[in-house]
Write a structure and sequence with these properties.
single chain, D-Maltodextrin-Binding Protein, domain 2, 46% helix, 2 domains, 5-stranded mixed beta sheet, 17% strand
Amino acid sequence: MIECSVEKKREDRVLKNYKIIGKVQSVSVLLFVIAFFVGCNSTENKQLDIGVMSDLGAVPIVIAKEKGFFEEENIDVNLEVFRSAVDRDSALQTNNLDGAMADMLTIFFYREAGYDMKMVSNTYGNYKLVSSPDLTSEEFMAVDKKQIGLSSNTVIDFATSVIADEMGFTDTLDKVAIPQMPVRLEMLGSNELSGATLPEPLATNAMIDGGALIGDTEGEGLYPAIMIFSQASIEENTEAIESFFLAYNEAVDYLNTTDASEYYDILVEDLGFSESLEDIFEIPEFEYIDRPDQNTFDVAQSWMQEAGLIENAYEYEATSHLDLLPNR
């Protein structure tokens, strides 16, 4: 009887141990499954540091950030707004930015200096030559020495030269270097210049003050605004850049279907747009991100070579990395 009792107790202990082991194994499996699905559904956001200029081309990027479109694409985008292309270039060269809004002249300067920068897309950018408030367009054309405020050896300089050539006043053009755009606008408004070349929304500001539109890059069929990244950044941030473009396009959809009154305060806060322009300034219809314009690339390169700004010739494909664009 004693032996049977001992044996029974042994069996009970073994059964109990099997039950405990079974429960531990079940819990372990459950924890593994939970960890697996959590891991699949929570990925660390990719990060990009992007430089933008304080003009209209930055609007889709700023809206993508403020309206959460970047977050929806699982990327954290840190935006730095620049009032000067010199400051932007300094940040790029010191690796403080992954990429930036720029223009086609910038890519040539970088390649000439040995920096492996690439065009990855276009952006919005229209550069306008506006007369001083005391000159109509006809009076502007009649001026013997047209003093035009601009920033030398930049897309603004390029735009001014192209417009002057197209309208036939290259011989009477007198370029006046005024790098800071607010100073240029102020001098134009006080009639110290015959005209000035400006991006939006400063060009609209100048026209509201009485200036006349003389010409613009879009009118000449030129689209020099681009996004640039270093080759190293492209290789390190491929997925993040692809996500950046998807969010950009979402912002374009939002902008093209939303009244400006619903987001203009963001442009005032983030980009320094004038509050007085809110009811006057017309936000254009933006387009999805796309390839940089090759014709503009060729025209800009020819102008820079003729101006002695670059010595080498560059191929469009060699200065571009277009595999990251959506729907390619």
